[in-house]
Amino acid sequence: MSALGALCFTQQAWEQVLAKAKRALVYLDAACAESLHWSCGSGRLLEAVGGSACDLREFGPQAAGGGPGQPKAVFVLSCLLKGRTVETVRDILGRSHFQYCVVVTAVGHPAHLTASHLPAGAVAELEGQQPVFEQLEEKLCEWMGNMNYTAEVLHAPLLLAPVAPHLALTPAFASLFPLLPRDLKLLNSARPDKRKLGSLAEVDASTLTPELLLQIRCLVSSLSSFCEYLGVREECFSVGTLSRIIAADLANYAPAKNRRKAASGRASVVFVDRTLDLTGAVGHHGDNLVEKMISFLPKLPGHMNDVMVNMVELTALQTKEENYTMIAPGCLAQSNDTAARALWESLLTTKHKEALMEVRRHLVEAASRENLPIKMSMGRVTPGQLTSYIQLFKKNFKALESHCGLLQLGLAAVQTLKHPMSSKWDNFLAFERLLLQSIGESSMSNVLNQLLPIIKSFSQRTSDDYSAEDLLILLVYIYSVVGELPADKDLDKAEEMVKMALTVVFSEEPKLSPLLQNILGLHRKIATNSGD
Q: pLDDT tens digits, residue range 486-511?
């Protein structure tokens, strides 16, 4: 596969959107916004839109409609055009003055036919036709208030957010999580008259809930479009229950079967359930700077895979926290800056020490090209050293503008190194190594007893101690490493003591984070009470 395959595929898909965006009010959902962010940037879309009266808006029930001077709307959506999504489009059109509406969906028409619950024979007869899109076009004209207005519904495969040439994410499917043994109860409750499932090994597509099966079909539809772009005939392999089902659905997907007959290339696609490596997800490896950036810095609003970089240091404002909200944050995605993108790709694949040296080298070279008075220094890279290089650009607006992408990554490195979590990360790493050694040399009950002294309530904790979330991360790490455990009285006793200690911690927390509320089920209780 070409190194630029994912990026070119996504940019080509966005070209379809850009071609429709001229002088339009554009609504994007979060997943499509993230795809745009990593592939060509919002500036490219604004450039295609043009006109001062048109802008970009977040798609949602509360989105404002278009005024009299905004006759055209483009909706860019990552999901199926049904249910609440279509209702939201209808409501926005109802409070607007649009005469021309374009709806772009990242999900292909075959998946929409699946969502219509048509028999297999009827779906086969409709091959090559797009009745679902055509019916929606008529509805759009009706909702705009005049059947002579113009409406278009089309598919653009906006599946990927290409973070790097060899790494692409799928924001629209971030919530698609592998099945767990506890999910068997839900699956069995949906089939009261059929044989009960005894294990995950017995689960197949026919036993899934309609909602999950439809989500899988949307993913398969998008993956098939990507394979079509690459011109490959894929051979699928899987590890894990949900991966097995997805791989089988892609292999049996009717449009994919026809595509594979004409494909000249070959590709192997490996699906792996994320639950098979929970240790990797919660471990603190310490070798990659990007991992720390994404873990420490605040998330960019509406994004799952990028962060906010405080840019105040490069402005005339004093570097006070209250001024942060006055300056638009920087980020890690630099789709339109070739030099910054090269540095970003290097940071993804190098170790922590080498990554800092790369940041320093790029800053020095950029400063030298701009004839800035830089003082060379060798040895260990420090936050102060990087900051001194970055500050040189502050005094030269032209240089600042030319190297803005590089400076954002440089500031991200500085703020990561200075972050309070940086030292705690090293403590995590050391404790995890100690736990691994203990697990190999003693029983699980002894390991939990080692954990007990560091479980401290809010009133007892210092800044160096582990928070409630940190403790849960350590527990996930321990149990993921150990796997299934045989029944043991000492282990039962140790687990009860840990549970009691955690109960005290949770009860004394002055404010539980959204994650803890979710784990403890408090968000559901709050929603229920507010509904009453």
A: 778 888 898 999 999 998 888 888 88
